[in-house]
Amino acid sequence: MVGTVLEPKNVLDTIQRLDPLPMSVKRLLGIFGSPDSGLDEVVEVVRFDPILSSDVLQKSNTPMYAGRHTILDVTHAVSRLGASEVLNIAMARTMRSRLAVALPQFGLDANQLWFHSLTTSIAAERLARVSKRPGLAGASIAGLIHDVGKLVLAGCVSASTLMRIRDRANSEGRPMHEIETEEFGMHHGEIGGTVARCWGFPLALQVAIVGHHPPHNSDDLLSITVRAANRVAHEVGHYCQNPDHEIGAQTATLVGQLGLRSRDLEPLFDGIVEALESALSSYH
Predict the structure, then answer these.
(1) Any idea which fold 8-20+100-282 has?
(2) Cβ-based neighbours of 32, under 8 Å, separated by 6 or more
(3) Fewest CB atoms within 10 Å of the CB: 70, 75, 87, 184?
(4) Is the overall model pTM greater than 0.85, yes or no?
(5) Pick from 222, 265, 223: which is nearest to 244 by CA?
(6) Tens of pLDDT along 261-271?
(7) Terminal CA-to-CA distance of the chain, rounded, Å?
């Protein structure tokens, strides 16, 4: 039963009030979404953005990507990383301050949404790489902004209403997105998909953002990857405190759909924690 239906115009108006994406990110999105684009175009965008150039060079020399020789120029850095990772770096720099805000309506202190989004992005990238399934390019990007719809909800729904929904979810032992759907006719993942469309993201990433909560796009492999990454991100904190932490059944089922087995989970979590520590240190 729907409580207060969100009018599409109110949602779109709130999205329009979000800070626009930098021109370099818009250009990279266009390149990423075009099958006819090449790395030369990515290099051109990066070269004229000093901050992005620095980030790309730094990432290309991290243990995950480093080769026998230190990379000192943008062309080789982009070649080593690939277009998807360059876009992910640019989006992470762009979204950091936006996702660092406190959202008490969702029970989130300052930086908690950013930390979860970054962890989900890293988990999505790792899952895509380990599973070796086709069609998972951009999983880390979708993971990074999978919860951006929460910013929109916070901007167009009263704090008291969202806190009431959170309290209801806690008391009924149900996920908040289910209560959002009952109350508004849509949940934050669907709103996040609309944000992605307005920002010019490729359709596959829009679908994955909408599908990070079931039952949407239940058979879409990219959606499953982001959904699994979201669950893994929620488990990482417990794992850090206790490496013997038993992974939840829902998480195990999702990573199993990507072809991972129980023996793959420990190295997966270790790799995510290591990459997360490295990523966080780069923003200090």
Answers:
(1) Hypothetical protein af1432 (1.10.3210)
(2) 83, 84, 87, 138, 202
(3) 70
(4) yes
(5) 265
(6) 888 988 999 99
(7) 46
Give CA–CA dist 215/94, Å, rounded.
30
Query: In 3D, which of 93, 48, 94 has the Cα closest to residue 74?
Result: 48
Series of mean pLDDT values for 10-residue runs along the chain (284 residues) = 69 93 94 90 95 93 81 94 93 94 95 96 95 91 97 94 94 95 93 96 95 81 95 87 81 91 88 89 71
| Tokens found for residue 119 | 């962890």
- Residues 6 or more apart whose CB falls under 8 angstroms from that of 277 comprise none
Write the DSSP symbol of residue 106.
G
Tally: H helices and E strands in the chain: 16, 0
Q: CA–CA distance from 85 to each of 52, 135, 197, 262 (Å)?
A: 12, 15, 20, 28
Rounded CA-CA distance 56/68 in Å is: 18
